[in-house]
Amino acid sequence: MTFVAGQKGWDGVVLLLLITVVFAFGLFYGYNQHAARWLKKEGFVTTAFGCEFAGRTVLLGAVQLLSTEKKTYWMDGIIAPAARRDAWLKKISAIDSDSKELEAGFAALGQHDKDRVNAVGMQTIAGVRLIQAKLEEKAGARTLHSLAGKK
Length: 151
What we know:
Blueprint: H1 2-7, H2 10-29, H3 34-41, H4 56-66, H5 83-91, H6 99-107, H7 111-150
Helix pairs in contact: 4-7, 5-7
């Protein structure tokens, strides 16, 4: 409070001036577009669309399947490693396994877990197919749009 009284009102004026300068700088340089400019410069094309998933397991499975990595340790803090999770990852082919290993892991589960693995596995695969179709549709539209612009 002593600072405010000692400045005799000039602190408010300077603060308003600072806010105005920051706002103008943001408008002039577009400071919220750094990532978009970087991706464009590097030749990446971004596609935005919305997705809704039945739950976090389906979402994480879709992320895993769309990824180029086969490692699944990144989801350990979200979905605890368990026999049901391993069976689900094998079912959606997120982990390399042969059919005997898949059957053995699946047979060790109870009926409720088997039903859950089947349901979540089907939802995950369906979600990934829809995302891939949407990406192909967007890429096709972008290609047609860029071809139309070159005429």
